[in-house]
Design goal:
mainly alpha; two-stranded antiparallel ribbon; 8 helices
Length: 233
């Protein structure tokens, strides 16, 4: 009941914003307000449409880029989302608009999702390659076993097949071991969370510890404090 009521409220707001745009379609905040309602309703394509309409009027509107980035992230278009967030951050900085850490948090989340998707894609491709190579080896074994033997080879056919199977078993074991080692290397190359900056998600080069005991990359922390109008380290 509560969720339905909330949804009805957003839909009612959308109707009001739409009527307002019929009277004046040059007000960017109306587009972004409607885009926010669409965000809450998870109507990503409509969010994109309204944000782009707002940006046609004001190409550096921070909220439009911010909401655009959120919708693009949900659609899995991470590079475009990162570009939108980056523009939003630059716009907020040049216009002296204060969004706290919301823009940077959204950017960090999207970067992390992109890395996770890329890693999943690599793993999927490796599994497909291993499956293909395994099939090729098995097919090649069967092809050789089914070759017509010469008269001199008929007596030795069983022995030859045993040797073939033994050799191909070694090939398959070698192949599986190679992919197992690759999997182990992948696990070893994963950087522990405590070595990555909590702002950039990259390996820290100059870590500093705050009074609360949390470690950050110095440059990231300084930039964050500057955005909040606080003296840097």
């Amino acid at each position: 009941w509560y969720q339905r009521r909330v949804r009805d409220s957003y839909e009612e707001a959308i109707s009001c914003y739409t009527k307002a745009l019929l009277k004046n379609d040059k007000v960017t905040t109306i587009y972004t307000n409607r885009a926010l309602c669409y965000l809450k309703l998870e109507l990503w394509d409509r969010v994109l449409r309204d944000c782009k309409l707002a940006l046609e009027i004001d190409k550096m509107m921070t909220k439009a880029h911010f909401f655009l980035g959120q919708a693009l992230t949900e659609l899995g278009k991470f590079d475009e989302a990162i570009a939108a967030y980056t523009t939003a951050i630059e716009s907020a900085k040049s216009r002296k608009e204060h969004f706290g850490d919301d823009l940077h948090q959204a950017l960090r989340r999207t970067k992390k999702k992109k890395l996770q998707k890329e890693e999943e894609q690599r793993m999927s491709e490796e599994i497909e390659l291993q499956t293909l190579l395994t099939k090729l080896l098995i097919d090649d074994l069967e092809r050789k076993k089914n070759q017509e033997p010469s008269d001199d080879e008929v007596v030795e056919i069983d022995k030859q097949n045993e040797d073939l199977e033994a050799n191909y078993t070694k090939y398959l074991d070698t192949l599986n071991n190679l992919f197992s080692e690759l999997d182990d290397r992948r696990k070893r190359r994963e950087v522990p969370d405590y070595l990555c900056g909590k702002i950039s998600f990259e390996i820290m080069k100059e870590p500093v510890i705050t009074p609360s005991g949390v470690t950050y990359e110095r440059s990231d922390l300084e930039e964050h404090l500057q955005r909040l109008d606080i003296l840097t380290l």
